[in-house]
Write a structure and sequence with these properties.
Elements: H1 7-12, H2 33-39, H3 44-48, H4 51-65, E1 70-71, E2 88-89, E3 93-94, H5 102-107, H6 113-116, H7 118-131, E4 137-142, H8 144-153, H9 161-169, H10 171-194, E5 199-204, H11 212-218, H12 220-234, E6 238-242, H13 249-252, E7 259-261, H14 268-275, E8 280-285, H15 294-308, E9 313-318, H16 328-338
Parallel strand pairs: 1-4, 4-5, 5-6, 6-7, 7-8, 8-9
Antiparallel strand pairs: 2-3
Helix pairs in contact: 4-7, 8-10, 9-10, 10-12, 15-16
The protein binds coproporphyrinogen III.
Length: about 350
């Protein structure tokens, strides 16, 4: 079926659409009263496991804000179901028994994500049915390094000393885990596309934890494999978002992702200089700008829009996820400015 609004898809495929499409990372979430109303009734885990509710919250930002793409409501860490590792969302994720020793690693199950995460694919189908081809649906996963970070750290971290300690102390073990998780993520993304996802985004949220040379040597080859194998297996555009250190952008740009996500630590124009005018970029308004006022939001939104004109195509987005303290009315103002208002 043809999409009613395919501006986002055109941009992902390298065609500059008639106007810049816009969506927001973490657009379904706690800043929306409608989301909080559902969360008052079910836990985050239960929400992720109930396809009809996933579809309902996935559509909230489409109906309320009019964004040009939907992103599946789920989490990058539900894939741990395939490893037999439980995650508690409180709301920040926590793993009771982080994977740190040889014995911990030996206990990992490496099951088939098609079975272990069947509710994710059911949610993709429910989202597609509910969207009725209004806008494209984005599926996603965490990048190998970010995913492993949570597994080894047991949650978020300031220092990443467990995962980095493992990398520097036992590079063979680290690379073995990276290889296995990469293979699993290809299957996970492929199953999302088979269920209806139109585009995929890979989140390397903790890319900035490593020194550039270590990221290049120990992370990039796995990320490159994930992107290439996913593109070959699915045929849909892949967006790669590596966050936290603009110094690695030139290295990230060696990966043939269809779209490069840009965080807010570099001006969009400077990012285009680094990745080249032949690439499609996505980003990069600092999400905390949305905590200000209409005049500031309009000015800063227009500056990002203007900078994006030099790229092959530009998808407007925030430079990271939207804050839960955002007034939806101000987010809507940003979206209206991008859409020509
Ligand atoms: O973007 C969307 O609207 C789709 C849903 C989505 C969620 N998490 C929902 C969620 C997506 C794409 C993610 C990705 C995700 N999850 C990332 C990568 C993006 C990034 O922000 O860097 C990461 C690192 C995670 C891990 C995770 N899950 C964290 C750190 C948290 C706590 C966040 C917080 O603000 O407290 C979660 C929980 C989570 N995932 C929530 C939501 C809406 C909040 C849970 C709640 O409703 O109580």
């Amino acid at each position: 079926m043809a999409l009613q609004n395919d501006l986002f898809l055109q941009a992902c495929r390298g065609v500059r659409p008639s106007r810049t499409p816009v969506w927001m990372m973490r657009q379904a979430g706690r800043y929306l009263a409608e989301y909080r109303a559902i969360r008052a009734k079910v836990s985050f885990t239960e929400l992720c496991r109930t396809p009809e509710l996933c579809a309902e919250v996935t559509l909230q930002p489409i109906d309320i804000l009019g964004v040009d793409a939907a992103i599946l409501f789920s989490d990058i860490l539900v894939v741990f179901d395939a490893l037999g590792v439980d995650v508690i969302f409180d709301p920040a994720p926590r793993i009771e028994q982080p994977v740190r020793t040889a014995a911990d690693i030996a206990r990992l199950r490496w099951g088939d994500p098609r079975e272990a995460c069947d509710y994710v694919f059911a949610a993709v189908r429910a989202c597609k049915a509910a969207l009725a081809d209004r806008v494209p649906l984005i599926g996603f996963c965490g990048a190998p390094f970010t995913t492993l970070s949570y597994l080894v750290e047991g949650g978020g971290s300031r220092t990443f000393e467990h995962i980095k300690g493992l990398l520097f102390r036992e590079p063979g073990v680290f690379h073995g885990l990276m290889e296995k998780i990469t293979g699993l993520l290809v299957t996970y993304l492929q199953a999302q596309v088979e269920s209806g996802a139109d585009v995929l985004q890979i989140f390397d949220s903790w890319a900035g934890a490593l020194a550039p040379e270590d990221y290049r040597e120990h992370v990039l080859p796995h990320l490159d494999r994930l992107v290439r194998e996913t593109q070959a297996a699915t045929g849909v555009p892949v967006i790669l978002f590596a966050r936290g250190n603009a110094n690695i952008l030139a290295d990230v740009a060696t990966i043939p992702a269809d779209v490069l996500g840009i965080d807010w630590t570099i001006e969009l124009g400077a990012a285009i200089d680094v990745v080249g005018e032949g690439r499609v970029v996505q980003g990069n308004l600092d999400p905390t700008v949305l905590l200000s006022n209409p005049a500031t939001i309009e000015a800063k939104t227009r500056a990002v829009l203007a900078a994006g004109r030099r790229a092959k195509a530009h998808i407007f987005n925030l430079g990271h996820g939207i804050s839960k303290h955002t007034d939806p009315g101000l987010a809507k103002r940003m979206i209206e400015v991008v859409q020509g208002g």
